[in-house]
Amino acid sequence: MCGILYSIQDQTSQIDHPSVFGNEISEENGVSFYETDDTEKIKSLLIQPQLDNDLILTKSDQMKLDNLERLRTLNEKLISLNNTIKKKLDDDKLKQKLEIEHQIDQIVNHPIHDDELLNQDYNLWNDLISRIACRGPDYIQYQQFCHHDKNIQLFSSILSLRQPFNKQPTETDDFILQFNGELYNEECLNTNDTDFIIHLLSKNLNACNTRKLAVLKTIAELNGEFAFVLTDKIENKVYFGKDYIGKRALLYSMVDSRLIISSLPPADHSRQNYIECKSSQLYQLDMTSFKLDTVEYESIWSEFGSDQRISFDPLVYNSSIANVSSKIENLYKVLNNACLKRQNTIHPLHETQGSQLGILFSGGLDCTVIAAMISDNIIQNGNRGYIDLMTIGFDNPRTNMKASESPDRKLSKKSWFNLLKKYNNELFKIRLVEINVEYREWLIHKKRVEKLIYPANTEMDLSIAIAFCLASRCSNDFKIELNDEIPKNLDFNEYMEDESIYSTFDSNYASNAKVLFSGLGADELFAGYSRHESIFNDINIDASDSILLKKYQELSESLIYDIQVIYNRNLGRDDRAISSWGKELRYPYLDNKVINHVINDIEPNLKLKYEWQLKTTKKDKVGKQVKTYVRKWILRELAEFMGLSWVKDEMKRAIQFGAKSAKLEIGQSKTKGTDNL
């Protein structure tokens, strides 16, 4: 993984030189240069000062903490009044309600003048370099030079997970490459993927009529999770973009004849100029005219063809599918292969004790399937080691719910217990890592996460991203590991009666996992949201096959749209939040081959199933036909096929509700997820 920062502007324009490197920047042949692979120096010089500056309690936050008990008392009174007012309108009670709301507002939104969070000597380049260094703590490199009449600055930070190690930016006589991500092309699974890109580019330069076509053909042939900036020094062009699904963050800002391309936005007001790169297109800057153009992936694939092309030609509704079992087996093979490639390409530069990989784990269907595949692959290969399942919960002062009581915590413990009974052996262990976030800690990290996730800017974005961000930090947590010898027939409920008999605990555990797996993408591929059900709301019990065909076509179109916009809804935001701890996120469900398979080889009525059931209520003495839905039906059947029956019927629960990271603050009860921060 790499953090990318690239700037190009007129040579006559004023340059923001980074001062963070002091007088250690060397000058040679017109190039300003700095590099280091000293991880302690990177941490002390860039990472820790940035965290110290961001992770602070403001005066207004401290006021909330100091008045927390009073806020709780006021909130309880408000809930009681609201319940009374619902039954009977009462002017006195309405006045009491308004007065309590005013008192809460005075504490929560008190006009305290917080100390300025940005240093008076704020320097854009220093800020971006420090933030981007957090993404890659193994190596950093800075360059500044003039090319024709343009000034170019580059900074890369690397979390090295593919060997042999390759410095970045990578430079040849023709090109400068900054590459953030992982490739899973068969030709480079056992080597450095940056080297593979350079070799592929060289090959295509010999095969294509123009340099531009060679660049576009090269990018279109890449399979993986990536973002990049490629400078063509011969034709004075800059190409940048991301993979077609958009699994890595990349932003750009073009103001006053200056183009900045960055993995992260800056902390100051100028972040408003930063735009998320679209995943469906590649960008090209002509240095001479300073004109920015785009090229659609679809047009590149149409011209060259590519094994990596994602085809959106879904199967239609089929009421009589005869080979469902083979469909389930084929889905297993494709998804398992996506997991295996992502597991086998973890070769960190600095070996550490413990787990090399972790899983963001709610205990639900999507992540449990992934956890089971990863565990089985490790065992089948005879490998030794651990995996960490990261489960997060938040203490919520508004509802008085503890992190340990959150729905995801309860489910994750149940799924972990069943997984380890199935897979634990002498060589391989599954550990549950419980991450409990207190209200104070949430306040400390909130402002930093808001800065990281921009241009994502809603309450829902924050509540999701802060859960992922603190789960991926993986430190000062509570680890549970099952003892080697437990009764084979031990039931989960029996285990919960006295965990200490069967488990060992570590109350101050820090996971060393540098790669985290996510189940993101399953809901978009297999119809996991309520909006997918709503397509069928107006269907009656006598609906003809032609009507069902139309409705399932609408479902397929909705699922395709979900995949096409997932870069903007989820992926950029999550990448910026999680990678800020020097962790890399991998998405098996969003593998190109998995997407192609699910869209083009699995009928939509195997994704969302519904049936009519006769139900009798107290109101209706006569039974009433009611639709019942099963979202992600074939994925649930896959869980059954894999022996994960306990999770087969678990319903979708968004992380902000499962971990209780939404609406933490008293006075937020009326806040909507779509409200801007």
UniProtKB/TrEMBL annotation:
InterPro entries: Asn_synthase (IPR001962), Asn_synthetase_domain (IPR051857), GATase_2_dom (IPR017932), Ntn_hydrolases_N (IPR029055), Rossmann-like_a/b/a_fold (IPR014729). It holds the Pfam family GATase_7. GO terms for molecular function: asparagine synthase (glutamine-hydrolyzing) activity; hydrolase activity. Keywords: Amino-acid biosynthesis, Asparagine biosynthesis, Glutamine amidotransferase, Hydrolase. Residues 2-288 form the Glutamine amidotransferase type-2 domain. It comes from the Eukaryota. The keyword DNA damage does not apply. GO terms for biological process: asparagine biosynthetic process. This is Adenine nucleotide alpha hydrolases-like protein.
